[in-house]
Amino acid sequence: ALESIDFKNALEQFQDLVEKMIVQKTKESSGLYTKDDDEIDYDKFSSTTRTLFGPAVKDQNIQAFFRKVMSNPDERPEWPEIFGCFTGERDGMSSPSEESMVLLVSEKRQITHSVVKRKDIIKGIVKVPLLHLTITASQRGVLTVFNKQRKSFFSYSFYFLQDTAWITGCDYLPNLKYVVAVTESTIILWDYKSKESKSYGFVIKPMKNCLLCVCTVTMADNLAKDTILMGDDKGYVYLLTITSDDFIMKQSKTGKISQFKILDSESFDIPKRKLHDDWVGKIKYFSALKRFGSCSTDSINSFVLDDIKRLEDQLPVKEFSVPKGVNAFTYCGKAKVIVTGG
Questions:
Q1: What is the DSSP letter of 220?
Q2: Does the pLDDT at position 267 exceed 50?
Q3: CB 239 within 8 A of CB 271
Q4: Could you list the residue ranges that cross the membrane (predicted)?
């Protein structure tokens, strides 16, 4: 039984086994390898792995791991892959008795309701825990709100707003009770609760640079306003505060598109600051830290973590560099750590 095995020791032995395989494959490629009794073929790799980890590993994961090492020893796989983590989706779900005894993965639930058309992809998923809602945004303009049972609560297509622009991100405005989404050139505010036959909302346009991501700044107050952060393709981060009065005072003379009224972006005070020298890949506000984070593939200004006030002044920001930049990040309050992925 795996419980009786010193997992750390077993893992070290497994990693030694993989290193020997890589050395063997490298020598074979250079013509310097001579077969002997220590040769590691698939049968030996499989039996050794099963001896080390027992029933926690499955045949298909052993085969996939072995193929990856043999086909490209320079790009060695990570050890969690031997337990089925980070591999492709498999049909069906494992029963609890078949779960990995080392890394427990929660069961997946599939939403069968089709919310996007063919050749469309989901660009954003946001959970709203207090309201038990999940919001999705597709690249070509479909916003969908799901209720607690993951059934489609309401879905709306913004193809008529798009022209050639794609939706690049979404979030929820908790005070105004709107869904916010950004495209390459506009900001969409959708009143998903509207009972009209055609949905109601606002479009803020034009935006000079291509918007790539958006997030809500969650505050403790219950005022009729919300603040959002956005990142663009020039490395800028924007700060935009929207109140219910803006919906009345700042409508454009050009009228509306369908039931969506146009708000002139020039009428808003939108502070921005260039924090990166490349695209802003993700932006997030951490209420527990009272700080926002933004990341970029920029190798110099890869990750920024600071107060939103820094977007309205020119004081130095807290940042650090990572070769080839940062693509994703998250914060764990229990461990009090921020993790980045490059």
A1: S
A2: yes
A3: yes
A4: none
Is the CB of residue 199 less than 8 Å from the CB of residue 259? yes
Token duo for residue 37: 């009794």
Domain identity same for 77 and 128:
no
Residue 115, classed as helix, strand or coil, is coil
List, for residues 156-203, the tens digit of each pLDDT value. 666 545 455 688 999 999 999 999 999 888 999 998 887 554 567 888
pTM recorded for the entire structure: 0.65
Helix (H) or strand (E) holding 188: strand 187-191
Q: Is there a contact between 279 and 290 (Cβ–Cβ < 8 Å)?
A: no
What's 160's domain CATH number?
Answer: 2.130.10.10
pLDDT band at 295 (very low <50, low <70, confident <90, very high): very high
Q: Is residue 100 part of a domain?
A: no
**How far, in Å, CA of 158 to CA of 138, rounded?**
10
Instruction: Tell me: do 33 and 127 sit in the same domain.
Output: no
Query: Which range of residues forms the domain containing residue 40?
Result: 7-83
